[in-house]
Amino acid sequence: MGEAPLDALMSLDPETFARESRAVISFLAGYYRDVEKFPVQPEAMPGGLGALLHDTPPENGEQMDVILEEVWRHIVPALTHWQSPKFFGYFQANASTAGFAGEMLCTGLNIVPFTRAASPAATELESIVMDWMGKLVGLPDRFLFSDGGGGVLHGSTCEAVVCTLAAARDRALSRLGHEGITRLVVYASDQSHSTFQKGARLVGVPRSNFRVISTTAASGYGLTADSVREAVEADVASELVPLYLCATVGTTGLGAVDPVRDLGELARNHGMWLHVDAAYAGSALICPEFQHHIDGAELADSVSMNPHKWFLTNMDCCCLWVASPAALTSALSTDPEYLNNVTEESAAGAGVVDYKDWQIALSRPFRAMKLWVVLRRYGGAGMRAYVRRHVEMARWFEQALEADGRFEVVAPTRFSLVTFRLRPRRDGDDDAVDGLNRRLLVAVNASGRAFMTHFVVDGKFVIRMAVGGAMTEMRHVQDTWELVRDKAEEVGAVLK
To answer: Where are residues bearing N6-(pyridoxal phosphate)lysine located in the sequence (predicted)?
Structure first.
């Protein structure tokens, strides 16, 4: 037992802090050392953890070594191991030594920089880091603080989407009047993330005014300007008001890319807000060979990407850039007296960024520290090498699939996401082959030797392999290919 009252009353004693932090770091180092040995996805039954833990909190505190032992015995075995080098599901959630160090500094300093006065260095570092990232991914200057734009670090794309939708809504309603909200229309593709539909509802756009525009294999499952134009013109003819258009660079299901320039020109012609969602593939834009995917970004109103996916930055961290900070802050700002800081600086006022007005919540962590440490520790060259390594692994896997007559690649592998399935043996065999692919995915995941997820496109069940873990090496991808081949044979797939 710990000395509960004393421990709580001295909860930031420097010696205790150092000793217990070292214990946690040692614990995590052991976890990373062994994570490859664990089944990637556990066989954990619902309610299993509750049966192992007490149903009331302890009255007296316990020592850290006791707590860590319980984490190891009860929590770790029931985790899906996102940092496993054999985790290929969803999109990766990157972690790194620098990301962890930055998170420790963020958490340890534990400031709340909602206004500049609340912590000047934190606000200024965030503005600097956002300009650094904007330059690194090749954004037009109009999104940088140095050229009148600016950026903010959110927790997720979901928040960025809600904030930009609110800004677009208020910009439109300033012309239409509040009653015009029932006429506003939002456009996205059938490959866009579901957060856009949720965000549109949250800002008051009627469900019936959300347009999901179909894509096809002919366009690589990206939007076409013609399909969007047709939907927009039909709405205009019905006296509705086009509000917001999402262009995605690297969709969740297939890694598809929408034509940013074509959609930007269309959005400009109809006064729509254009948002470029590069949550996953934005990290690849640091490589010049991928920057053509955001050609036309100067026509956008906002751009977002998530360093916590593929940029070695521990959860959570989302970059949102806007061309007009005033459009964002006019929708989100509040000015309660208790947040006003009476100083000579506040009297001057001009040019001061208060990040509370760039987000939904008031409180916020010092995320800029985390991203800054990653950039300082690995640099642009290191990060480009990191991204390219995963792209090379994904292309190897794609080529292996193409060389095996049982499989087909469903969509081109543009970044590090491979989408594939077992082929139908004959025409009209789609239902049977969907069942075969489901069994294949279940068998791969049940083995514990890899973890993947799925998608459905054109009515077809598709397996997704998202390469991008910090600890993933080519041998893990090659081992996974052997696993997929073996399990395909087990479920009854034969060469044509």
So the answer is: 309
